[in-house]
Amino acid sequence: MTALTASEDLSDDLQSVIFDFLGSDSGSSFDGRTTPPEKAIGRQRSGEKLSMADLRFVKSLGSGDIGSVYLAEVKRSSGGFLVAAAKVMDKRELAARDKEGRARAEREILEDLDHPFLPRLYGSAEDGRWSVLLTEFCPGGDLHILRQLQPLKRFDEASVRFYVSEVVVAMEYMHVRGIIYRDLKPENVLIGSDGHVMLTDFDLSLKSSSSSSPAFAGSPTSDITSAVSCLAPAISCFHRRLRWPRFRRRRTLPEFMSEPVNVRSNSFVGTHEYLAPEIVSGEGHGSAVDWWTLGVFMFELLYGFTPFTGESNHLWNNLKQSMKMRHVTDFDMMTLANIVARGVVFPKEPTVSDAAKDLIRGLLAKDPDRRLGATLGAPVIKRHRFFDGVNWALIRCVSPPHVPPAFKTVDFSKDVYDDSGLDMPVEFY
């Protein structure tokens, strides 16, 4: 999928710095164990300030618009090293491209996150040229690569329910914190060592000056556990089962409703195939765009492609003439035209349940005011029949459909781009 802001390669200077950090050692000192970084550098909300001398970059993991990510060894105060994902940004390039605000916003958002499905900022380091953010390393790669490994390059419905439900919980938390994600796509959903998701890449996210003040609304239910709002699921799977009375009256329990997030934007940002109609048309947008992207995300996991991918039609030319986008391809313009004017069409194959299709239709409503979740937030999405049987309070206790193999020691003395030592054809972030 084409991002609106094109990724750029690392400068030669940064490459030389990375290789300088590699040094002349014969191999990596990483022992293959995924020791939680917080044990060595602390889980402080602001992240610990480290020296560049504490870092050793050992492998390229990927690149984005404002920086590149490396697998890095972080020197432990007790001796030895631990592994982390290091996002390296060239401060001169950020200034030249007017991207300093995006880098600063991502840092502030990472500092604010405290949720099992979202990354924590473990630490940072910088000098006169480079700025580095250290977050948790996810050895399972991302959902885009994992989808490529599935039969027919798509997930079964049970797997989709698992991944979508965890994404809903993560975005619900962000909305409560006043954050609009704006960049949901399989490439940005990582798989942790336990098989659960972790959303990443927040440089396109938008944060309100103040967190949302969640309203409370009653929800009649006959099962207390089903109504728990899973903003930060942390209930142990090993507690003794509570004994509830066999007969109990229906009661009304409070639910968090954080929508809409108190911030609006007219920015044209995101990945083409995931853009909401209100972004394409330039009408201004709010948190409802995240629920649109959830619909596109769910469709892609089920069918293996996005619902509005550019095809030959007569709409895109008018749209292109009315919008000043010199760097947007005709294919992308057709995609944008489809987003604005074409309804979602479900293929005959594979067979997908009516509940899944109904949820996607609700999320892909063109009018953001009528979009599922736009006004009542995640609780109304959670109550959709597609999620029947999901215990939101114990969502972390569900067995994932895929658990990555234990991360093994790799000979990092090889070229930084040599992936031949990996057991699986996945990208690491």
How much helix, percentage-wise, in residues? Answer: 25-40%
CATH H-level homologous superfamily name of the domain at 143-212 and 260-307 and 344-397: Transferase(Phosphotransferase) domain 1
**Intertermini distance:** 18 Å
Q: How confident overall, as mean pLDDT?
A: 77
Largest sheet: 6 strands, mixed
The rough form would be described as: globular
The tally of beta strands, per DSSP, is: 12
Q: Which secondary-structure class do the elements indicate?
A: alpha+beta
Order of the strands making up the biggest sheet: 1-5-6-4-3-2
* H/E element order: HHEEEEHHEEHHEEEEEEHHHHHH
Question: What's the CATH first level of the domain at 143-212 and 260-307 and 344-397?
Answer: Mainly Alpha
Compute the CA-based radius of gyration. 22 Å
- Oligomerization category of the chains in this entry: single chain
Domain Protein kinase: 55-387
Organism: Acorus calamus
Pfam families: Pkinase
Keywords: ATP-binding, Kinase, Nucleotide-binding, Serine/threonine-protein kinase, Transferase
